[in-house]
Amino acid sequence: MSASSVDEKLASAEFIKGLWRENPVFIAVLGLCPALAVTNSLQNALVMGAASTFVLCGSSLLVSLMRKVIPKPVRISVYIIIIATFVTIVDFVLGALMPAAQKQLGAFIALIVVNCLILGRQEAFASKNGPWLALADAAGMSLGFTLAMAMIGGIREILGNGALLGIPLFGPNFEPWVIMVLPPGGFLTLGALLAFFAYLKTFRKGAR
Amino acid sequence: MSVKEPGSFRLIATLALAGLISGLALAGVYLWARPLIEANEAAALRRAILELLPGTTEIVALTPRGERLVSFDETDPESKDLPRIYLGRNAEGKALGFAIPAEGPGFMDTIGVIYGYEPEKKVIVGMIVLESRETPGLGDRIAFDPHFLENFRALAVEPEIVSVKKGEKKNPNEVDSITGATISSKAVVSILNKGTARWRDLLDGEIEIAEESP
User: Fold this and answer.
1) Are A120 and A52 in contact (CB under 8 A)?
2) Domains in chain A, number
3) A128: in domain
4) pTM (2 decimals)?
């Protein structure tokens, strides 16, 4: 087996783990601020997911490439500079191309800087692995994060607005469950999903 | 066992370099994004004016000169930073009212609003939040809470606008606050009062509109 195919296998493993086994929201319970705050609709969840994906992939790649030249005592500061740069770029690009979405997400775009998921991946993974693996890890984690947020956002929009992506689903007689699009709805949905996945995990362990 | 510590010069140099590269990258993106963001803001402003003054077909930008309001000259590069308000006119050329941008400190950051104003009746006829970074779920409701926005559909500016607890609005110059967002509600009221005080005399005075030659 050639070295490159071993690399590829490793990379795909790093990619897959973010989707479920180490899913940032449901398993690691990281990045909860955006996962609760902007998931009142599927669209917001997806835009937030895309923005976080860009920031995480860009930062992980850069941190991994520069992992040997960044002196240890200032590494966190450098990570923050890198992450903040990508976040500001996202903010500008959204403001230029999708002003309505940027307005909807408001301060939460800027708050990606302090998303512990992103800084966490730099410190735990990108600073210790090559660029290819770091990118695979970042892509998997971002996709897992986006999927988790899309799940929460979809559930909340359906129950709280009777719509999905702004398209009404149930006709005019549907009485929306308004609390689901308000902040408490985020906690209720996340709690229910966490309980559901924890149940699945124990159930599968018991069966083994 | 000893680990060689990098010298402080190297630490400072690394951080300075990272900051420099970051700054250059952001400046580049900003140069590309700025015209697009400005165009979006201009479109949003136009939409807001049309919503505040329904029936408007022509928007005239005005700026103060001395004691009077005069037409805003877009072609003059020096006028770029002058304060502006907007007069909406319908197809017959009748003035429908003014749209007045105003801003002031909110709970988190500056709140920017634009409000519709009818000088003869001395009432505010609508308010739209253009910019706010208020707390999501609480303060940011100043932008879309229907009950709160209802306050501004016919709000007397004399005597001074005051905010009252939700449900206690009795007089035409009172604003029902949003429960849990008292500071943001009061900020909007104070922005409107400041805007009124600033433009009242100018709006009561003479207005000089340069008619476009056909």
Assistant:
1) no
2) 1
3) yes
4) 0.74
